[in-house]
Every structure is written in C-alpha cells, then in structure tokens.
Amino acid sequence: MKPIRAYFLGLKRIWQVKRYIGVIYLINLLLALGLGSLVGQAIYRSLGKSLAAERLVQGFDPHWYGSFSATAQGLARTFHPAVVGIGAVFENLNQFLTGRLFSEPGIFVWLGLLYLLVWTFFSAGFVSRFVRPDDPEGFWQSAARFMPRFVILAIMAGIGYYFLLGGVLNGLGGWIRSLTRETTDERVVFFLTLVKYLAVWILVWWLNMIFDYSRIATVYRDLRMVWLAPIEAFGLTLRHPLKTGGLYYLLGTTGLLVLLGYWMTAPGAGQSTATAVWMAFLFGQLYVIFRMGLRVWFYSSQTEMYLSLRSATNRQSKEDDL
Amino acid sequence: MTRINSWIVILGVIGSLGLGNLSRTMATVPLSPRIASYTMDVRLDVNEKKIYGREVLTWVNPTSHPASDLQFHLYYNAWMNERSSWLSSTRYARRAMAALEEDDWGYCDVQSIKLLGETPVDLTPQMRFIQPDDGNPHDRTVLQVLLPQPVQPGDTIQVEIVWVSKVPRPFARTGVVGNYYFIAQWFPKIGVFEEGGRWNCHQFIQTEFYADYGVYDVRLTVPTGWVVGATGKEIETVDNGDGTTTHRFYQEDVHDFVWTTSPDFLVFTDRFEEPNLPPVDLRLLLQPYNRDKKDRYFEATKIALRYYGGWFGAYPYDHLTIVDPAYQSRSGGMEYPTLFTGGTRWLAPPETRQPESVTIHEAGHQFWYGVVGNNEFEYAWIDEGFNTYSQSRVMSVALDPPILHRRYLEGLFPILFPDIRLAERFDGADAYDGFRSILKSDRMSQLSYRYGPGAYRINSYNKPALMLRTLENYLGWETFRKILSTFYERWKFRHPRPQDFFSIVNEISGQNMDWFFEQTYNSSNVFDYAVDRVIHMPYEPTRGWVLQDGELVPLSEVQRDTAAADTARMECFRNLVYLRRWGEAIFPVTVEVVFTSGDTVVERWDGKERWTKFEYVRSDKVEQVVVDPDRVLVLDVNRTNNSWKRQTPARLASWKWASKWMIWLQHKLEFMAFFH
After folding, report:
1. Range of the domain at B614
2. Chain A: residue nearest B287 by CA?
3. Which of A94, B111, B411, B503 maximizes the CB count within 10 A of its CB?
4. Number of domains in chain A
C-alpha cells in the first residue's frame, strides 16, 4: 500500500471514532477550564473596578500586566501576553522541541502525566477499533484490556524520549558549543543548532513511529510480552522505510500545513465584544480538536499501513511455503 | 620633578609624532581641561592573544592639593583569577565560569614605570596593589605608585609605562573570540585626583568608568589586512612590511580610548547632516552576516544625534564609529568616546528594534557619559538613567510603538505579536517586568559600586529614567528640556555629581524640588496612589438637636427654612470618593471625577495624608474616577488601582485573557500527549 492510500483510508476511519475524540477533547477542555477559571479569577480580582479592564478588552495593557505579574501567585504566574494567538502553540512548541516541556511548574507536570494516561487509555481503544473494526468488544472494554500493555509501551518509549531529548540533545548542544566556541558568525551556530534539532527530532519521530506500530502490533497480535512489539515495529520500519516513513511525514506535513494556516488566522488580542471573544475561543478550539484528530489519524493510517504490510508478508510467506 | 605647562607638553608630543593629518582633527580651542593625555604605541600579537604596550602619560594635578602618589586602573586584572573582586562577586554566572579554559584568563602586567624628566626615575619598585573598596588582598585592579616628590597643584608630570596585557575571552565587553578583538579598559589608566587630595580610583567590581579628559594619540599595530576601529580618527597607516600594519588614531578631549580589530568587518561610511547641528562622519564596522542591518544602524545613529543634539546640545566631535559586535563576543551594547557597539541578531525584523534600541542608547551615551563625564563608579545613574530616559523619549517620537516579540529555539527565531503593544521603558514603573519585586532593594543614592544584588540595574537605569520622566511631566517638557540642555552645557567635559543636577533643576524651574529628590533619590520609598472606594447614597436631611440662641432645638425646626432646598436635595445623591496613598512617597496628584451626566470635576490632592475624601451632593452619580489622569507620576508602581469605574468589563476582560491562557494550556497538554 502506498502511503498516500493509507493516508486517505486513515482519514475515513477517523469518523468512526469521532465521539471518542469528542470525549478526549472534553477531558482536555475540562482540565483547562478548571485551571483557566483560577487564572480568570486572578485576572478579575486584579482588575477590580479599574479602567484597565477596558484596555484589556480593547487589546492589551502592559501597565496592568506589570502590576499583575508582580503580585501573581500560583498558576496566575504562568500568564503571559505571549499566550495570545499563535503564541499559545509556539510557546509550547518551543518547550517541546527543546526538551523542556516537563520542566514546568509542578502542577503542569502532574497534569501532563495524567493527560498522558488518558491518551494511553484512549489510544488502546482507538487502535483496537482500527485493528479490529468488527470486534464485538466495545471501545471501552478494548481500551481497558490493552491499557496496561500500552502503559508498559509508554514507559519504554518514555525512556527512549528521555535519552534522546535529555541525553542526546544536550550532548549535541554541548558538542556544538565546544565546536563553535570561537565562532563569530551567528549563521554557523544557527545552522548547526538547526541541524542538531533536526537530527534529534528525526530520531524522536522515528521512535514515535516505532511505538505507534508497537501499539498496533500489540493489539493485532494480542501480544502479552509487549517488549517484543517494539522489536517487530523496529524491523517493520527498517524493512519499509519509505512506506512507514513516508506515511509518517505525510501526516506530519499535514499537521505543519494546518499549523501554518492557524498561524495566519489565529485571533490575536483585538476582540472587544463577548461574541468576538467567544468566536476567537471557538476558533482556537477547532485547532485543538484538529490536533487530537491528527493524532488519531496517525493511528488509523498507520494501522492501514501495518495491516497492508502484514498481509503482504503473509502472502509472501505462503508463496514461499508453496 | 619638572614643572611643565600642560599645553607645551601636548603640543610637544604632537610635534614629535609628526603632523600628518593631525591638523584636521585638532581643536583650535581645547574643549576639555585635558588633565590626562596618553601617547601609546601598542602591538597586538594574535597568536599569543597579547598586547605589548608602551604609554607616555602626561598628567596635570588639577587640584589645590599635592599628589604624593599615582593610582592606576588595571581593569584586565579583574579576570586574572577567580579571587579578583569582580569574579568573586555574584555578578558572574557560575555556569559560565565552568566553561572557562586556561587561555581565557586575562591580565595586565605592568613591567616598568618611569617618571620622565631631565633625569628619569624608575618607579617600578614603588608599585603596589591596593584595594580601596573591599580590602580583598587578591584584587589587583588598582595599582598605586609612590612618587619621590609630590606633584604640586597645577604641575604636570610625564610617566612612561611599559606593560603586557593578555586579552581574555570576553567576560564583559572586552576580549577576543575567534579573530574578533574588542579591546576596552585595556591600558594602565590613571584614576581621578579630586579636590580634597584623594584619588578616586575604584577597584573594578561592578562599575567601571571615571577618568579625566585628555588627548589620546595611539599607534596600533595589528596584522595587515585587519580592519581597525578606535576612538578618534585614523590619521596615519603604515605597512611595516613584516605582515603587520600600524594604524594611528588621534582624539582630543575624551576620557577613554577603545579599539577593535578583525579581518571580517565590512566597513561602511555615511554622514549625519541636520540643520543647526554640525555634521558627523559615521563609520560602521559590520559583521558580514548583518549586512542587511547597515541602513538600520546608520538611521538609528542619526536619530540619536538628531534628537539628543536638538534637545540637549550638539555632539562635539565630527566623527563617530559604530561597531556591530561579533556573535558571542559579549561586547554589544557598550559606549566609549566616539565609538560604541550596537547589537542585533541575524534574524531581527525591524519590529524587534534590534539594533535600533541599543544603537540609540549607545549613541546617546556619547552625550551622557562621553561629553558629560560623571563618575560612573559612584553615580552610574547619571549616565545610564539620563540616557535611558533620553533613549525612551527619542524612541517614543521617532519609532513605532514597541510590540511584543519572543525568540524561540534557543533564541534563533523571532516571532512578533503585532497586537501586543508594550510600553516604552519610561512610561511607567509597573511596565517594568520585575521592577516591583526589587524596587526597595536599595536607595538610588547608594554609591553604584556598593549596590546590593539586583539593585544596580534598577537604580541605575529604570528608576532614574522614571524619575526624570516624572520631572518632565511635572515641570513641562520645555522647562525640563532647558534643564537638561543647561546641565549638558555646564557640565560637558566635566564630572557632575547628583547635587549639580538637582541645583540646576531648582534654578531653571524656579521651584525647590528637593522634596522630590529626597524621596526618589535619597530613599527607596515607592509611590502608589489609588482609588480606594466610591460610595453613593440618597441624600437625607440631617436629624437631631442643635444649640440655637442658647437653647437646644430640633434640627428639623432649624432646617424648616431650608426645607425647600432639602426637598430638592432629596432628589440628589451623596457621592463619596475615597483615595489612598499606599506607598510611602508623597507627590501631589490631580484627580479626575466624571459623573453620569458627563460633567467632569478635576481636583487637586497634595497627596500627603494616607487618604482623602471628596464629597459631592449632586443629582447624578460618580461614573469614573482617575487619579493622575495625565500620568504625570510614572513612578507610581501600580497604575491599575489608579482608576475606578462604575461598570467595567472586568468579567469580559478576565474571560478573554483566561480563555487565551486556556488554549495555551490545552496545547501544552497536547504536546505532552505526544509522549504517551
């Protein structure tokens, strides 16, 4: 199967699980709402009856922010005007790419780990549904059945990510610093740094792809010894690099293109009416939902690819037997 | 000891060096007292990263006291080892220290010092290091030399010093990276002998500049083909035929000399021309990768020369060199006479104001530091604060308002947030990120080299800029401009102290502003005026008893005559506006009260008591109150509590910004979910 076919087949299959994506979105939204309300209250309290409220509605008020940030406590301290528009993505993308996403204030780390578990659970359900669409076992039962194995896979993947983003990335960073110690041309450091991130993130994405296929293989083969799954997935990606890699980067490019589109259209700070504020919020939610859908899309398309490659392998085995 | 007239010495030195292009750069009348003049011959060895130097210092005792010793700054010894006061202070990051290699240290080794005259006297055995500031015996940044005979008031001496400096990897501004050398604070430099007969020659710990004006005639020998930029004008270039070239730079009436060299510089020239201001030749030494910033550097420099020159007084020299510092050289954003360093990034769209902001700031230092030469060791706020204020003022009239930008992926990529407008630095205390947390860390009048952790920046840059802006708002721009131009005119090529400025403020404004300086300069108190509460209630006639003609009568009977008025007042509201002074510092403020009918009442409050009340009995209610509506007191640390409005969209505002934070959090969770 060509990557492009798996890509579109996967897209079709997302619709079969749309309500589960809806559930995961609701969880995400509720977590954000819970903490967002605390930040909102802090902003509200800081404004009181001040005219700063009007300025904040019209746009942004740096004087208010100066006062607010100087006295903010807890979560409110994480508020920054750069959360507006594309900044909401880029601020986190920066942390993500530089391997500092989990070096955040404690509450975000715990929340992130909880959310990881949520996704681990739902991934089990999604993959089960894609691998065995006719299985009488429901989404929730499948998710519960495979969850423990997916947790083990997540831990294994986490060790790999930690090694790459903690060890390799930092190691390369130190090496580049040493290499460019006497460099006076910023472009040299610029491109070497880009190469560093590209090199590490190609490995991270490869690892991510291996563990995607590991999850699919675990469900497909109902593997009990889950540590075998990454070995099989690793072999699969090595045997079919163009197909597996092509599909992965096709999906990744889709995400990148939508990100660029969001960058161009993301609402900034100019909403001055309740309707405009809500519209901006809802527009932002569409992109959040897209990102969740994209993650599921990876699973659905990669499942199609996996099944296709498996059946080709099986056919080849039978022909060889004959 | 030979008494020599200083002018004869200078002219003699000039004569001995050959005139060449010198006549073009010589002032007919000295602009400055020319107390310390140097003739130097130095050679840079790029293999050893060493400077071999010989200088002849011509020094005049400008005081009415004899000088029995000489004191010199040896700045490079601050990076001799970790025991120096500079390196052992908390200012230097521990992480950067760990990355130091053997070749990174720097030092200035004075090999000989000789008193010139008919019979030269070797003073080398009389050298010793002293530590006037902290007593750290390991600090070797101040060298004392005892003289065989005191230098009498008005006398001139000549001293020859031979020294070798190891150029460090840049710790602060000066040093070498690759083949980029930025050589500042590099030669044995005499301190300032002050009235009272004491040397003002501080150790190099935190602050760095204070020197007398003079004439610098410097020959710099560097590898042939390397571009050289320096204080002054290049008046002679000699190819030595041994792979080196000697560049001779000459400058009168400056208090320091800096130079830079690298084979990589691109050299551009331009000229500043403005009606009513003298023209200035501009020379830009640019890093090749910043070629696209050429026009931005020039334009920003011209903006500074135009506005500073127009507001305060003309730039007195006819040339200025701008240096675009090499990447990771730590030499950006620094001022020296007739030369300064800017700073930018390879990717820096104009909205980032890189290099505009730093260029205007450093070009501005040519006025506040270069021409008005305050003692930066002790009163850094005079040059940094004046310049931060001036820079902000220039930028607010000459550039678009600042917008938020963030740099991502280790600072490689700038991302702009066009609809997040920021405040200029002098627009308000609360606009400063981190200002409020350290604003009480020290009083501004503390000597700058003694500021505690975190207090130097706030008291040298931010607070004085706000203090000056508040003064401008209070006295009016025209008066304040006159104050600054008078200060500039009176103190150019001299060393003003804070009181000199305060006196000019009082003189020009015709007001005694000591109360203001007492609070802003001599204290760490803060200003914070606020609307505490606004109450309105239906008007009710007063009840009870009152003494009338010796008899107690019911108040209702007394008021019977005014019953009609009371009846009218029954339709009224009693509006009470309470204001607070939360800060310790006091400043008179105006208060604007707007009523629902649209009427506006402006009140004055001397701001002395902790609170005050304004009462209005009217048929309408108070709609809005603003303390200091014209934002005179930009030192007020909390603008948010300065206003009150009956109905504000606080709910909508908080939801709007909380919703954006929520989306930020949602994406954070989604990025975390990648690792599931």
Report:
1. 529-645
2. A185
3. A94
4. 1
Residues of chain A positioned with their CB less than 8 A from the CB of B432: 66
Same domain assignment for residues B429 and B573 = no
pLDDT higher than 70, residue A322:
no
Task: For residue A286, list chain B residues with Cβ-Cβ distance below 8 A.
Answer: none
Q: Do residues B633 and B503 both lie within one domain?
A: no
Rg (CA), chain A: 23
Does one domain contain both B47 and B187? yes
Q: Which long-range contacts (CB under 8 A, 24 or more apart) does A11-19 make?
A: A11/A297, A11/A300, A11/A301, A13/A130, A13/A133, A13/A300, A13/A303, A13/A304, A14/A293, A14/A296, A14/A297, A14/A300, A16/A129, A16/A133, A17/A125, A17/A126, A17/A129, A17/A130, A17/A139, A17/A296, A17/A300
CA angle B426/B494/B394 to nearest 5° reads 25
Identify whether A140 is part of a domain: yes
Is the Cβ–Cβ distance between B44 and B166 less than 8 Å?
A: no
Tens digit of each residue's pLDDT (9 = 90 or more) over B278-318 = 999 999 999 999 999 999 999 999 999 999 999 999 999 99
Domain CATH code at residue B621: 2.60.40
Q: Measured between beta carbons, which residues in chain A are less than 8 angstroms from residue B641?
A: 48, 50, 67
Beta-bridge partners for B408: B413
Asked if residues B618 and B572 have their Cβ atoms less than 8 Å apart, the reply is: yes
Residues 219-258 of chain A with CB under 8 A from chain B are: none
Question: Are B429 and A123 within 8 A, CB to CB?
Answer: no
Does residue B329 lie within any of the structural domains? no
Cβ-nearest to B648 among A28, A53, A157: A53
Is B208 within the bounds of a domain? yes
Chain B residues in contact with A40 (beta carbon < 8 A)? 654-655, 657-659
Is residue B660, in this structure, part of any structural domain at all? no
Q: How far is A26 from chain B (nearest CA, A)?
A: 11
Distance from CA of B629 to the nearest CA of A (A): 11
Nearest-CA distance A97 → chain B (Å): 8
Distance CA B401, CA B397 (A): 9
- Closest in A182, A269, A271 to B177, CB measured: A182
A55 domain residue, yes or no:
no
Size of interface A-B (CB pairs under 8 A): 301
Q: How confident is the model at residue B541 (pLDDT cuts 50, 70, 90)?
A: confident
Q: What is the pLDDT of residues B552-597, one digit of tens each?
A: 888 777 766 565 566 666 678 899 999 999 999 999 999 999 999 9
Residue with tokens 């990717």: B347
Instruction: Tell me if B417 and A41 make a contact (CB, 8 A cut-off).
Output: no
Query: How many domains does chain B divide into?
Result: 3
A40, part of any domain: no
Q: Is A71 on the interface with B (CB under 8 A)?
A: yes
Residue B533 sits in the same domain as residue B506: no
Question: Mean per-residue pLDDT for B371-396?
Answer: 97
Contact B329 A184 (CB under 8 A): yes
**Does residue B280 fall inside a structural domain?**
no
Identify the pLDDT of residue B11. Answer: 44
